[in-house]
Amino acid sequence: MLYVVEAILLGKGLSFSKHAAVVAAFGEHFVKAGIAPAHFHRYLIHAMEVRHTGDYGGLNDVTPEESANQIARAEEFLGLGQRLA
Question: Fewer C-beta neighbours within 10 Å, C or N terminus of the chain?
Answer without folding.
Answer: C
